[in-house]
Specification:
six-stranded antiparallel sheet; about 5% helix; 1 helix; mainly beta; Metal Binding Protein, Guanine Nucleotide Exchange Factor, Chain A; three-stranded antiparallel sheet; about 130 residues
Amino acid sequence: MKDGKGLNRLSAEEERVILHKGTEPPFSGEHVHNKGRGTYICRRCNSPLFRSDAKFDSGTGWPSFDNAIQGAVRKKKDEDGIRTEIVCASCGAHLGHVFRGEYFTQKNTRHCVNSICLSFKPEKGVKR
């Protein structure tokens, strides 16, 4: 269901994470172990953010991606002054943080995303 601004209505927990920069507990999100092929989209505005071929198992408890769809994710200095926050470039929804230098993949980048910030759109003809 949409709100008056054309954005999806959020539950109280979704608001806590997406609008107030919260974090869901590790290993609690619906997308942590999803191995389906498709696209992860913003729960707030439905903009495509990550493709499933960029997802990898980091063992950290949150969905991890070594690449975002070009122009879909904006990076900014986190309020803690140390980390880099990632937000949806379309609506500004908080997604999580990006880390470099961990060597999980050849791209050496981990977009650590809260599952609650994402919806999954499977490829046509592919079961989840």
